[in-house]
Amino acid sequence: MAIAKAERLMNLALCLLGTRRPLSKRELRGSIEAYMEAGNDESFNRMFERDKDDLRELGLVIETVENLEGETGYLARRDSNRLPPVSLDAEEAAALGLAAKVWQQARLAGAASGALQKLRAGGMPEAEDAYGSQGSAIEPRIPVHETAFEPLMLACRDRRPVVFDYRKSTAARPETRQVEPWALECWRGHWYLAGYDRDRGAERVFRLSRITGKVRSRAAKYTAEVPDVVTVRETVAGWAGEGGDRSALIRLRAGAGYPLRARATAVREGADGWDELEIPYGHGLDAWLVEFGPDVVVVGPSDLRADVVDRLRAVAGA
Hints:
By secondary structure, this protein is α+β, with helices and mostly antiparallel strands. The chain has helices at residues 2-18, 25-31, 33-36, 41-57, 90-102, 109-121, 149-158, 232-239, 258-263, 285-290, 302-317, and strands at residues 23-24, 63-66, 72-75, 162-166, 175-187, 190-197, 202-207, 211-217, 246-253, 266-268, 274-281, 296-300. The protein is built from 11 helices and 12 strands. The strands form 3 sheets. A 5-stranded antiparallel β-sheet has the order 7-6-5-4-8. Helix 1 (2-18) packs across helix 4 (41-57) and helix 5 (90-102) packs antiparallel against helix 6. It is elongated, with a radius of gyration of 27 Å. The two termini are 53 Å apart.
């Protein structure tokens, strides 16, 4: 089946690239054997539309033109489907290869590999591994385990509103959110979505690991203007207390909470199995500390301790 489809796509591409005038569906059906064998017009139309979409997805620019008789025709002009000269040196080619490796564990692996193949076909040099990644102990990776990543990535690209169920860190049950997605960004091993929350009428940032169920797209236009710059990382860092102008003193169980230890400005090891840490205190630190559960005890300031206690009580009483 896969070989038959590949042959059909190749034949359609050759027909569209080899013609000087638009070819109608009728002419294409009479030129390609697989289309001739289609049982009826409806089967042929479905097959042709799928093939046309697949070729466009592969990068072939197919034009739709109406002739003097009002009949729709199709062609792929050679000048529109020719890559410009690729002028990359060996180091630039190696950098692109390294960037493609980053996505090997994500759903973008196929797209990254296909892009490299097209560039190499256009003349990009086959670079040596200038960065020593072969056999290296460190390999660049962006892990994407959340099933929400791919539908949200496509929604950001196509500018389509989405609906999903989202569970906040302090809530026991998820809530339905209607969002106009803007951008995805990875920060400290977690993926976040920035967008316009229609129900709240404001910009919001969502952690993908807290999205439950399927992401459903909606065929509607955006109601809010998309900003030129979406500061996902800065927003999340602010919520996590990064850049805070105060310090908080917490007790952390020994061997736990590595992210907190990485942010600490001072660490004092305790003899009772608990360490004392001083960390920057900014907006949203209480929500972050709650995620560490019984491994964290807030010593001060008192307002931070009260906020953490309130959040824990809300979760326990839900």
